[in-house]
Specification:
single chain, 116 residues, mainly beta, seven-stranded mixed sheet, four-stranded antiparallel sheet, 11 strands, globular
């Protein structure tokens, strides 16, 4: 079982990034996928989730209108498009899978740094 996140980096305020999370070893299309983030000294917070079929999506208020979560089930991959980035979006972004058994799995995280 593996969730491999990638796509983070350093970007100026107002810029964009696209994060990817490739899953293996899970029933991907039956799993709720999500992105969370954790800034230094703070708790890990929800960014966005997407249901197995993609029909139900939720966003944190702080990212609505700027971030877009999507998934490609044949590729077992979930994406997070980050637009209009702000310095306060700086964090380690983690991929999460809530699999049919009810277990919650985490990827290793990818760093997003937004300079002002």
């Amino acid at each position: 079982v593996q969730l491999q996140a990638s796509g983070g980096g350093l970007v100026q305020a107002g810029g964009s990034l696209r994060l990817s999370c490739a899953a293996s070893g899970i029933a991907f299309r039956f799993s709720i996928m999500g992105w969370y983030r954790q800034a230094p000294g703070k708790q890990r917070d929800l960014v966005a989730t997407i249901s197995g079929g993609g029909g139900s999506i939720n966003y944190a208020e702080s990212v609505k209108g700027r971030f877009t979560i999507s998934r490609d089930n044949p590729k077992n991959t979930v994406y997070l498009q980050l637009n209009s980035l702000k310095p306060e979006d700086t964090a380690v972004y983690y991929c999460n899978a809530k699999i049919p058994s009810g277990d919650s799995l985490w990827g290793q995280g990818t760093q997003v740094t937004v300079s002002s």
